[in-house]
Design a protein that fits this description.
The longest helix has 30 residues, at 118-147. A two-stranded antiparallel sheet has the order 1-2. The relative contact order is 0.10. It folds into two domains: 10-79, no CATH class; 84-262, no CATH class. The protein is 68% helix and 2% strand. The protein is mainly alpha-helical and 262 residues long. The chain has helices at 12-35, 42-56, 61-83, 87-93, 118-147, 157-162, 164-178, 184-196, 214-235, 237-244, 246-261, and strands at 2-3, 155-156.
């Protein structure tokens, strides 16, 4: 996927609200003017405008709500698109982004998880890997993006995701995270509580307004995030043991076992 966030995105729904209302009012003026010979005084126009505001607006309640929802969804999508320009976070979350509901600019699909979890998830990852590894990850990901970006700023994200350096970096991050789960139950509870206590605000009417991660969501999230990592480790355990060292490899293997057990 090649993408570039537009500098001044506009939603046709948001933009057309004013056009629709003005057009409707002009039509009302034309109808009333025709009744009195083709022209209206300033006072008559003001009176019609007041009537329009007080009496006819209720007819457009559903239209207003739909336009508001469209604008809100677009704003939230663009805000997320802006924040995920931090390539490290975007690349890491790619491992499970299909679990989000579908939305403009995103790779969501299944809707099992909620994007409201992102602030707490990022905080949890930062606490588990530490600032030094976070800074290293940001630096490497930025370099990878440069490598896969055109002169006009378009980035080939598929190339970024499949870059061997990207895969190696994220696998290293995940191996580091796995090693913090020496006490699986305690760390799981800590991560769930941290994410659920830092959920982004939600519209009361939104489908995920009452969403929480919980133990079920934790297992779904972690299995998805570690799926490729686990497959590579199991494909060549000798190489993985040599890379991580025997003690770390054992800790990682035990963590993956707990994930499988649920």
């Amino acid at each position: 996927m090649t993408d570039r966030t537009p500098c001044s995105p506009q939603s046709s729904s948001c933009r057309d609200v004013g056009t629709t209302m003005i057009s409707h009012f002009v039509t009302r003026l034309e109808v009333e003017a025709a009744k009195v010979g083709g022209s209206l005084s300033a006072a008559e126009i003001r009176a019609l405008a007041q009537h329009f505001l007080t009496a006819e607006q209720d007819c457009f309640g559903t239209y207003y709500q739909r336009a508001w929802d469209d604008c809100s969804h677009l704003r939230e999508a663009l805000q997320f698109e802006h924040t995920r320009k931090r390539p490290f976070d975007r690349i890491l979350m790619r491992r499970f982004s299909y679990l989000y509901p579908p939305r403009l600019f995103d790779e969501g699909r299944d809707g099992v998880l909620s994007r409201r979890m992102i602030p707490g998830f990022v905080l949890a990852i930062d606490k588990m890997i530490g600032p030094t590894l976070r800074e290293r990850g940001e630096r490497i990901c930025t370099d990878i993006l440069v490598r896969h970006s055109s002169a006009d700023g378009r980035c080939d994200w598929n190339a970024v995701y499949t870059d061997s350096e990207t895969i190696a970096l994220i696998d290293y991050i995940l191996g580091t995270v796995a090693q913090t789960f020496t006490d699986f139950e305690r760390r799981r509870t800590w991560m769930i509580d941290l994410i659920d206590s830092h959920l982004a605000p939600a519209d009361p009417a939104a489908p995920d307004a009452h969403w929480t991660l919980g133990q079920g969501g934790f297992i779904v999230l972690m299995r998805a995030m570690f799926s490729d990592f686990a497959r590579r480790l199991q494909a060549d355990p000798a190489a993985a043991r040599a890379f991580w060292g025997s003690a770390a490899f054992t800790t990682i293997a035990q963590f993956l076992f707990h994930l499988d057990e649920g």
